[in-house]
């Protein structure tokens, strides 16, 4: 039985900092910052401004540096356990503890969720629905038009009340008309809307009864699986549980996203750079923080619509547009970085070109390198001119150095040719020289094509 409600209980949020499963393999997007700031900081800053007074951060391991609210609006505590096997175990642990269990409607923020919605207004709307019908259990935030960075959902929503009827992640599977068999409102003549390409933003307003559901059903491992299985099995209709679908309204300045992959990290980064998180980005950093301490060798440079960390050096003739540059990054001369993320302690040498890619910490881009679209390089890799032959994947993870293959070939050739006569060496050098000239012309043509693409894109943006 649920605990009696306490009218004086402060608005509480349960924030998942990770999957709460220490045995699960982390994804490539796990732990990546958003504009050089941890995602958890973004989430807690928005909650603090929205009137949330207590945030319980759930994680599989201790988090040493939590968000500190300078106005002391939000009390943050970290609850962690290495024995949890998912969100479900964490919620069951919360339900068992009197000092943690919410006794009134509360907020759940999933790992990777990014939003600027005022959750206090969502909570107020949720309470009004529950006052009219106590069976309303969840208000879940969705966004129309997931975009190519996410695998969109297909949902069915009752048009009149906003009740979520179907929720499927398999957009290729058909939506059977038998949804009417389990829904009383549809049987009585109400209409339903089928919405495809929907993004689940990982933000929910929940009633305390949700924790009871998790306590009594140990096979629920995630909030999302609970929603899907309740709807797919028809249990929501049988037991009277109702779930409301709140669609984000961008016309009102609302924004919500979910960082679940490298592609979604790149798209969310671009969205935030373009101001979609206002005004809440002011609580994360002020206007000056978007451009940290930069050491310029020359004053001839371009940095537009980008977030730059501290102690960054940029040489003459370089251009950084719609990108994020981490701390202690060195950028050489005549470098172009477009819609990319360069993390801490990395180096991008002279005349290099980086487009729509992500470089982990301590990467080293050698001179005259061209990194094509949608590349992801793991920590500490060296990337050279040979990288221009890499095919463009959807953020394919490279875990080996991508240095000039020709350098290795030439080194091996020198060892093989040590004992040969000068005439043969001369012929080999001539062939190598011609090969280098061809490669140089190829890189130059590719550089020109990518610059044209950048100019065309800038023209569209303007």
TrEMBL record:
Q: Is Amino-acid biosynthesis a UniProt keyword of this protein?
A: no
Task: Quote the protein name from its UniProt record.
Answer: Translation initiation factor eIF-2B subunit epsilon
Q: Where is the EIF2B subunit epsilon/gamma LbH domain?
A: 292-386
Where is this chain compositionally biased, Acidic residues type?
A: 409-432
Q: Where is the composition biased (Basic residues)?
A: 436-449
Annotated compartments? Cytoplasm, Cytosol
**SUPFAM superfamilies, alphabetized:** Nucleotide-diphospho-sugar transferases
Q: Which organism is it from?
A: Gracilariopsis chorda
Where is region (Disordered) located? 398-462
Traced from the root, the source organism's taxonomic lineage reads:
Eukaryota, Rhodophyta, Florideophyceae, Rhodymeniophycidae, Gracilariales
